[in-house]
Amino acid sequence: MLFSQIRNVDGSFGKVPRRGTDSLPDNEIEVILSGKTKYTDYKIISFKNDTTIVDTTLTLKKHYKFNFLRKDNFELLGFHNQGQTFNNLAYNFDNISKFPDIGFRAKQFNYFKIEDIDYYHVPTPTTEVMYRTGLEQGQVLDFLFTTNFSKRFNVGVAYKGLRSLGAYRRSLSSSGNFRLSFRYESPKEQYAIRGQIVNQDFFNEENGGLTDESLDYFLNNDPNFSSNRGRLDVNLNNAENTFEGKRLYFEHTFKLLSSKDSLHEKDFSNLKIGHSFTRDSKFYRYNQTTATPYFGDTGAFGSVNNKTDFLLYNNQVFLDFNSKYVLGKFRVKADYTTYKYGYENLQNNLVGITKNKLTGDAVSFGADWNGKVKDFYVNASASLTPGSGRLSGNNLKAEALYKKDSVFTVKAKLGISNKLPNFNFLLHQSSYNTYNWENNFSSVGTQTLGGVIESKWGNASVDITNIDNYTYFDENNLPKQFSGNVNYLKAKISKEFTVGKFGLDNTIMYQKVASGSDVFRVPEIVTRNTLYYSDSWFKGDPLFVQIGATLNYFSKYKANAYNPLLAEFTLQNNTEIGYPTVDLFFNGRVRRTRIYFKADNVSSFFLKKNYLSAPNYPYRDFVIRFGIVWNWFI
Question: Measured in whole angstroms, how far is the alpha carbon of residue 434 from the centre of its chain?
């Protein structure tokens, strides 16, 4: 066997645009890897079957995503240690789940959902490694290996592990995300199957934030504590929580009729019958070696060990076909779902609580439509779960998109959802007396209307959301439903200016809560502005660099407080936060290796020490981070 390659001078592979783009950007060159293999053959296939390719270029968007989430976290405010939770600077209601979940949302920012798992098709074994340093003895490593055993069968294995001690007492973070995905097609593409096995765990030591006295030391920049944050006292010295999830999912289809088999292929073709199966289990545990008065009175003596379990099974059958009468692809589907949520035993002397478990099942019906007429696309998905059970409700998502070559794209979207709130709002047991409840809440209705414009002149988006029966945790850490409506506006614009080797990337977001601001709170203004220099260095351009500074700012607002027992954010009316931060970075690319150096929060040297992520929880001080992303193509 003989294998040869021809690469770019800088050793990079380019990026192929998403579906619908018919040309590559001017600065990306098609590279022939061998006589029959191109870089475009290294494909990443999303859950929705959108296809991109393995991308080894260095861009500013890659810089924004170089964090332990590996996502652009513009709308999130992180805590000081990576692996901890995030406070919300904005909210997104585009992808509301069809059914209630276990809850404990503060533990799920790094949780991989079904839609987050990718599938692959590669002509040679392919590997990607991401490494990033943590705080005080820690790092995160994300490793992916994928290979095709044949043209029709691919397996991808990935693991992301994180451990970081943190700068404050009792702030250790440790997590692991194992993902295995596979896809197979029979030789004549009549039968196809894809699936995933995912095992995830998230562990945090919880300190409850700084005590009031220590918070004063922090805000006043007391020199006795500025160089060693571990000296500051915290509210909890023996608490920790854990969230784990295990999921098995597969989907397989059998083609009953293909386009070449059909006598009227323009009328009706590609008839498939399919089935998908999901087993999704989760549990949340809060532990303390000794109960403390921080959460109020307790009926327990000694240690606290609260564990909540959740198990969901879903079977779906569906029928796919193409037809000119629906201008594209159509799917009809039916689901049967069962769930079990709750606790192993019903604790004694719990007033008003009659159940230790919530169980039930439901049948759902729905349809998906993907249509296209020239440059106009329509995508819609609808489901209905009739009845009066806890899974009953409806969900509709629709978008209409117009794309004019690479000049501009205009998209309008609509979302309607009705479902019960998460199960931890409905039933919760704890050794602490005030953290026990059983509620019969009404369904939460969410209606969203939005639009997006993307063009070479800039990008803009706007979303208008109305929420009925908004459910939240109040100042006393109790679940409540808002009797009025929450009306929420979010508008965002972004534009990058380039002059020679210099660039200025700007993103500005404006938010307004017209009604319901007493229970739904966001900052009015959030901005990110990055000034950077990029160039190729040395003879032959072996090194491409980006050097710059990023200014982040959000206006003052009464940010939600973090409750480590609930793993949720709660309302508070005492503390306003809002401040700017400045980060510096130096990024480089050598062949297929991207190298990142970042100095977080250099503004802490010359601005006030008022930077908090939540009341009593400081944001990170100045720290230098290092990391790499490296691809191998064997």
Answer: 31
CB 467 within 8 A of CB 444: yes
Cβ–Cβ under 8 Å, residues 513 and 485: no
pLDDT of residue 540: 86
Task: Note the residue count of the chain.
Answer: 634
Domain region containing 364: 39-633
The verdict on residue 378 lying in a domain is yes
Other C-beta atoms lying within 10 Å of the C-beta of residue 25: 12
Query: Any idea what the CATH number is for the domain that residue 244 is in?
Result: 2.40.170.20
- Say if 26 falls within a structural domain: no
Strands (DSSP E) along 456-560, which ranges? 458-468, 471-473, 479-481, 485-499, 502-515, 525-537, 543-554
Q: Is 604 part of any domain?
A: yes
pTM for this entry: 0.90
Residue 202 half-sphere exposure, CB side, CA atoms within 13 Å?
23
Nearest CA to 581 among 605, 553, 609, 557?
Answer: 553
- DSSP SS3 for 244: strand
Q: Pick from 86, 90, 103, 87: which is nearest to 421 by CA?
A: 103
Domain count, the chain: 1
Strand pairing class (479-481; 485-499)? unpaired
Q: How far is CA 544 from CA 31, 547, 591, in A?
A: 18, 10, 9
Instruction: Find, among 110, 102, 103, 105, the residue nearest to 91 by Cα.
Output: 105
Report the chain (634 residues): mean pLDDT per 10 consecutive residues. 47 42 40 63 92 92 94 96 96 94 97 96 95 88 96 96 95 97 93 97 97 96 91 96 98 85 59 96 96 84 89 97 84 97 82 88 96 89 94 96 85 97 96 92 96 93 97 97 96 96 97 96 98 93 95 97 98 96 96 94 93 97 94 87
Core vs surface per residue 445-458: b (16+ CB within 10 A) or e: bbbbebebebeeee
Cβ burial 52-67 (10 Å sphere, 16+ → b, else e): bbbbbbbebebbbebb
**Domain contains 24:** no
